[in-house]
Every structure is written in structure tokens, then in C-alpha cells.
Amino acid sequence: MQLRNHRDFVAGLMFIAFGVIFIWASRDYNMGTAAKMGPAYFPTVLGGLLVFLGVLIGAGGFGAKAPELRIEAFQFKPITTILVAVALFAYLLPTMGLIVSLLLLIFISSVASHEFSVRDTAISAVVLLALSWVVFVKGLELQFPLLPLALAPR
Amino acid sequence: MELLANLGLGFATAATPANLLVCLIGVVLGTLIGVLPGIGPLATIAMLLPATYKMADPTSALIMLAGIYYGAQYGGSTTAILVNLPGESSSVVTTLDGYQMARQGRAGAALGISAIGSFFAGTIATFLLAAFAPPLAELAFKFGPAEYFALMVLGLIAAVVLAHGSIWKALAMVVLGLLLGMIGTDVNSGVSRFSFDIPELSDGIEFAVVAMGMFGFAEIIINLEQKENREVFTDKVKGLLPTWDDLKTAFPAMCRGTVLGSILGVLPGGGAILASFSSYALEKKISKTPERFGKGAIEGVAGPESANNAGAQTSFIPMLTLGIPTTPVMALMVAAMMIHNIQPGPQVMSSNPALFWGLIASMWIGNLLLVVLNLPLIGIWIKLLSVPYRVLFPAILLFCCVGAYSINNNVFDVFMTIPFAILGYLFKKFDCEPAPLLLGFVLGKLMEEFLRRAMTISRGDATVFFTRPLSATLLAMAVILLAIVFLPGIAKKREEAFQGDD
Q1: Does residue A107 sit within a domain?
Q2: What are the DSSP calls for B183-214, one per residue?
Q3: Of A59, A86, A103, which residue sits at a domain end?
Q4: CB nearest to B455's CB, from A35, A46, A83
Q5: Within a domain: residue A27?
Q6: pTM for this predicted structure
Q7: A25 and A53 share one domain
Q8: CA distance A116 to chain B (A)
Q9: Does residue A131 sit within a domain?
């Protein structure tokens, strides 16, 4: 038997892994009985179900009738750039304030696009910052530190 | 007649200047994000949910959020017709014939019929909502924990059946969603489950965070990987009014679409998407000239557009009467109500009549606003489509990040979008539908709670679900649904129907 549907196979593995993780994480909690379910009962049952489904799905990748499907290539740049941008935003917001964090978010995430242009990004950054100020700070009155702590008025 | 009195209260509530304003904001915003591909009502409502904390009146919050949802159905058809890109997943079928009409120079007629059909459907659906909600709420009072559990099972099975692609994978996604929903404190025992000593996790993961990560960020990442070009028909869209002939041909399709959409919208897992797909299939099946479909048949636009609007509105019924969200968007509405300390369920109608009827009335007002606004504003929407994606997606990221932060004023929620973005990305690579996971996530703790209570009452007897008539019926429906899908003929039809989605 040959592996034809790679997507199903890996998806199956992923589900099995999740199922096992949840079953394992539930081992410390009380199972209880069917009439009086403890915190571990439902998660364990569901975890078992997930493992079962994962096996079914993974196995479905083999066999002559399975569609021939590979996994599309993972491109390193978009996902890492975007997630780094988000992480940096979250990390810096409390200390560096909204303005700096948003600027970094806009610039770094823009790099992820293959059509990146510094000029366009700069213009849209200004527009977006202004828009954010109007909508979030004035309009919705959300609370943020705006300026970096070091510069904040005392 | 009581119905008229209730509607009177509703319109009085919905027509206050404040509520009219939020309705307008909601539908305009909804149309806007419906037009823009890459962002949909789910992510937008998730982004705005924290903002509704600030609103003093829960009715206003719901009116705005609802406006976004059905407004997006209007907007999605604009992009579908002009750019062959569904701005909204329920507009996929509109691309089939709508875009062809545009290529034949009949974009105006297509857009016009789409707006008219949507308004027609919206009006009727609002009436249905008003007429059927009270009896349904009555029925809901007879629901015990066993029935609620069975209903949720039906809902999740329906979501699986309607998901794009493999049933088993969708089922697995539902189960995974249920499990993720269990992270947090278990109400019954007080045990903090799966929180790995992280205090923020004891309250569970915020739904908006999951939605933004898996739907918003993952979508952006995938889009960036595919460097596509869009062909846009932005040259003058003339003749926005369809001809009398067009109207005559389209009218029966509109009626059928409305009826079909209204019924399908109420079903768990239903809503706008299922409605539009089914309507297209129906129109093609009963047409005397099916070969016209796919080449610019106006029924192929009128039917689905009416259906998706009807479906979007009637999907509020289970949420408003039973308190059960049947789609992820409804789950967000439930969250919005709970933020304002309103417990969704059959008692909402009697304890908050102004909210209930005001929301219903606002839907009709919203539809009116949409049809009045959209026709003249089409020029502006078209301009928007020419905003390059490289400018658009950082804006989406910005709104999501700020929104996520503002839920609890804690950057933790922003960090949490990252693992879900990764998950969402992986799921797309492996052909797994994220929507069932979201539904499972929302229903996870609720399902456990109802299961527990039902089992406690029956003292561990699992057959209680089958001996109580209502519950047994619901479970039987779920089984029938599953069986239908596995029948060979239907399996192929499903594949065909979803072909167009890629």
C-alpha cells in the first residue's frame, strides 16, 4: 500500500497527537462515574474519540482510491514575518506604548508581502495610526499606554 | 393581535436615533467587509465584540453586530459579481453566474437583482422571525438537559455534514474544538483544567482570540503565500436597474430562495452558506434551460442572494429562542449578550422584550438601509477593491491585535492568537475546515454541562437520551443526516457542490 494522500495522513497524526495530549493531561483529574462525572470524564472520552478519528483519517491516506495529494510547500517568510510582528507588538505594547508597537506591527508585517514598498508602507502607516487614534482612543475610549514608558508624562 | 403589538414595540425601540445610528454603522461596516475579500463578518464581529462592552445598551450592541452579519451578505455579492471573488463565503455561488453577467456587460442588472432579492428575502425573513419566535420559545421551555445535549449533537453533526471536504476530518475538528473549549476552570468541581499553571488560562481561552487567529491571521498568511492577481470589472457600471424581463424571470427564483433560505437558516450548522448553495442547486435542477447556468442566468443570482439573506436572518431564531448558537457568528452574539449580563434562552423574550423585538425590527430597518445605500454607493465599493492587498492586510492585523488586547486589557490574549494562527495555517495545509472547530469550541463546556446534568438526573442511565421523545427525535435527525451524507449518490453531489469553492 502506498501513501497517496499526504494531507490526510499528517492530519491524522496531528489528531492522534492532540487526543493523546488531552488524555494524558486529564490523568491527574478525577474521573468520577457516569452518573456523577468528574473533570476528567468528558475530556478523556473525547480524547479517545479524537485518537480513533485520527487513526481513521490517517489510514484513509493509503489505499488505491485515495486522491493523490501532496502538502503544498510551507513558505517560511509569510508566516514567520507575520507572527514575529504580532509577537513583537504584544511584547512591546506595555513598555513602548501603542504608537511604537503599531508602527512596528505595520512595518514588519508589510515585509511579508512580495509587493512590499517602503513608501507605500510609510504612507499607510501614517493613515492607519491616525485612524487608530480616532477609532480606538477617541471613539471607543479603549485604554492603552500611548507613549513609551520612558517618555510618558509624570 | 399580539404580533402587531410586539412589532410595534420593536420598531419603537429600533427607530430611536441612537439605534438607527448603530444600525447604519453596522450595515455599512458589514457591507464594507463583505466587499473586501480576506475579511469576513466572523472576524469583524470578533474584533468589535470588546468594543461593545462600552455600549450602555445591549440592544444597540446586538443591532450593530447583527447589521454587520447580514450587511456582509450584501457586500459579498458585489465582489462576487465584479471580481469573480467571493467577498463572503456565502457569495461563492454568486460568482458562477453573476461574474458571467458582468462579462456580458450586465453587471448593473446583476447587482440590482442581488440587492432587490436580498431586500425581499430580508423582509419576509423578519416577519418569519417575528411570527415563529414566540411559539418556538414556548417549545424551548419543554427542553431539559437531555434535549439540549441532543440539540447540540445535532448542531455539531449538521456542521460536519455541511463542512467542505471530508466528513471524518470535520468530525475530528469538532472534537478538537470541544476539547479546546474545556481549557479553563470546571464549574462543577472547581478544578482548573489544562491550564499548565498559567493563570490567564484558568478562565479559558477567549473565543474572539481563537476566531482571529484561525480565521483572520491564518487566512492572511495563506493569501500571502499565493501571489495572485485579480481581474476587476471596475469600468463604469451602468444601468443599475434590471429590466422588467429580468425581474419577471428572477421573481420566482427570489421566492424559492427566500423559502429555502428561511428553512435552512434555522437548522443548526445552517445559516447563509448552506442556503445559497442549496438555492443554486435547486434553481439549476428545476430550470427548463439548465445549460444557461454558469453562463449568466439571472436565476442563478436571484435565488442564492435571496436565500443567503433569509438564511442569515433566520439563523438568529435558535439563538434568540433557545439560547443555542448554531453557527460561530451566533456564538459571538451569545457572547455579546452575556457581556451585558443577559442569559440567552427562552426567557429573554419575556424578560427583555424591548431587546428581543427591537433586534428583530432593526433587521428590517437594516435591510432597508442596505438597499437604499448600496445601489448608489457601488462606485465607492468598487474603488475600495482597488486597494492593494499589501496595504489591506496590515490594517486587518492591526485591528485584530488591538481588538484582542482590548478584551481583557492584557497582551496575553494577543500572544494567544499566535498558536491559533499556526494551527489555522496547518489546518489549511491539511485540508481541515476550521469552522466546525469553532462551533465545537463554543459548545464544549455547555455540552459537558448538559450531559452531566442529564446523566445525574437519570442516575447514570445513558438511554435517557433515547427514551425522552424530544431528545430521541433530535438524535434521530442527527443520525439521518449522517446516513444521508454517506449514501453514495449524495457523496458525489457534495463534492460537486464544493468544487466551486476552490
Answers
A1: yes
A2: -EE-TTT--EET-TT-GGGGG---HHHHHIII
A3: A59
A4: A35
A5: yes
A6: 0.75
A7: yes
A8: 7
A9: yes
A-chain CB neighbours of B406 within 8 Å are: 136, 140, 142
Q: What is the pLDDT of residues B444-481, one digit of tens each?
A: 877 888 888 888 888 777 777 888 887 888 788 778 87
Residue pairs between chains A and B whose CB atoms are closer than 8 Å: 183
Please tell me whether the interface predicted TM-score (ipTM) of this complex is above 0.95.
no
8 Å CB contact of B179 and A78: no
Q: How far is CA A135 from the centre of its chain?
A: 26
Residues A15, A44, single domain; the answer is: yes
The verdict on a CB contact (< 8 Å) between B460 and A114 is no
Record: contact A60-B168, CB cut-off 8 A: yes
Are A55 and A89 within one domain? no
Based on the fold, state whether residues A89 and A30 are members of the same structural domain: no
| Residue in chain A lying closest to B187 (CA) | A39
Instruction: Give the CA dihedral B453, B457, B463, B468, nearest 10 degrees.
Output: -90
Mean pLDDT of B300-310: 88
Number of structural domains in chain A: 2
Residues A140 and A99 occupy one common structural domain: yes
Domain ranges of chain B: 2-499
Q: Which of A79, A103, A121 to probe the B interface (max B CBs under 10 A)?
A: A79
Burial environment of residue A77 by CB neighbours within 10 A (0 to 12, 13 to 18, 19 or more): middle
Question: Closest Cα of chain B to A38: distance in Å?
Answer: 7
Please answer yes or no on whether B193 and A29 come within 8 Å at the CB atom: yes
Domain that holds residue A132: 76-151
